[in-house]
Amino acid sequence: MSSQEKVFQVTPISPGIAIGKTIKIGTSHLVEHVPERFVAEHETANELEKFHDAIKKTKNSINQLKERLKNKLATSDEAIFDTHLMILEDMALITDVENLINTEHKAAECAIFEASERYVKVLEDIADPYLRERAADVRDVRSRVLENFHVNEGNSLEKNISGRRIVVADELTPSETAHLPQDKVLGFAVNVGSPTSHTAILARSMRMPAVVGMPEELMNLDPDTEIIIDGFAGRLIINPSDHTLDIYSLKAQEANDFYSSLLEEAELLAETQDGFIVQLAGNIEKLEDVGELKKFGGEAVGLFRSEISFLSYPAPPSEEEQFKLYKELLSRMDGRMVVVRTLDVGGDKLNDSVFRHQEQNPFLGLRGIRLCLKAKQDIFRTQLRALLRAGVYGDLKIMLPMLTSVHEIVEVKNIIEELKTELKKEKTDFSRKISIGAMIETPASALLVDHIAPLVDFLSIGTNDLVQYTMAIDRSNDLVTYLYQPANPAILELIGRTVIAAKENNIWVSVCGQMASDPLYTPLLLGLGVNELSMDPASLSIIRRVIRSLKMSEAEFLASEALKCKSSVDVRKMSVELLRKTVPEIADIIIMENER
To answer: All domains of the chain, ordered by start, with CATH?
Structure first.
């Protein structure tokens, strides 16, 4: 490759600047195929013993990794490896492997691969990108198990990396990421991955700049090529000039100083210079995430992804199991608000005992509230009973996903009244006045919001899906990601409609999608009148700084002008100008050169 400077646009997954020479790590240790092998009937008992021994050894190695990383990762991020342990304990998977050995006389390593591959295929077809990323965890765990059969020998990253380097690879699994020696690795650039992957979460926890979506041509870089990773703006610079190196060296120092100062502001209100207060909340999925939320000054749980807990059980969790989870969550939040999103998955889910229906297009199929009302109302009723019971222990609110009609809300409210009658007859304590909220994440719900708002207690805008469905794109498809435009005037129009409907009905409105965590959109959302922003806890500090530097009058003027624009490019330019005026320290770090 030429020694001339080249700049590539990629996807940032962990903020920061890394400048250094590359080291290429070969293909991931992931095993993509195991040749079919059979054993004699009298050998099946031995194969079963080998399988269970491999599971035991893998559990031990994961626990050792957790212990080793105890002081390097946030407590919530250590729980990623608890997910890996739960995969190893999944009774449906274990039974599947045992049946393949007992009835089909498959060798243990083949049975493990075949059974787990079914899980991988189902997960990879899930519409929700967050849940789709869990396929990587299953593949990671499978490869660790197969190491015990010498099918996969793994690799020692610590031994392979010398000096201070930037890792370049096709893919890094969570296990490989956790093994990256922080005293040697400055950051990494990979081809495969996303901001919601466990690899990305670990990179952020380890404060390691990282990007994904690296062009395949860069896998052929000469060893020791100098590159720059910009984990803020999503830029990969090959053979940077002396001038570029000077700029990014300064930017790296500014970023380090800036993020250190932000932690000192965690207790401050998110209040504009002219006195408008915005509630900052967190999107979380596990009890362990509460500590991280408090660390960064989160005032509430704006979105608890209840479907994640369903992954932890071989069968749907019982009412009692869910009740205890929600009660403990409220206890850890010390009386602060907790919004629980009801089961938000499609008919293509992992556990066959819960979801058997296969769909050609799960993005537009039986998912969210549709699945709960039409196919799995028994599971939905169990969850609602648990939520009603837990509601007496704190400020718990129920949020309904994937709404497209008023009738769906009416039907849910009728079910809740029926469940209240049941609980009353059983003399079981429950919340009589639990709040119900609607997620506005489809064009239909946004256009019907004048009719939806009078029926609920709050609205929450899920911008990830709202942008995807409005722009008619699959946001995981690289060919159309350029159309993923949160600042598109069409999206702003729908958000504005939602806010107006909320105000007319005296209810509050939140934004809980990725748009809430991007400083570029903070002035727009404030100006449109959003009351709450809910995001990944690690993003709270930077959004708080933006809010505290703005005047509401400036944000409102920006929003009114943005609604007159013809394109997202024009909107972003105006937002950039305001950020450079009010918070230049943030603009200098996060904003891409071509927007300056």
So the answer is: 6-27+155-248 (3.50.30.10), 41-149 (1.10.274.10)
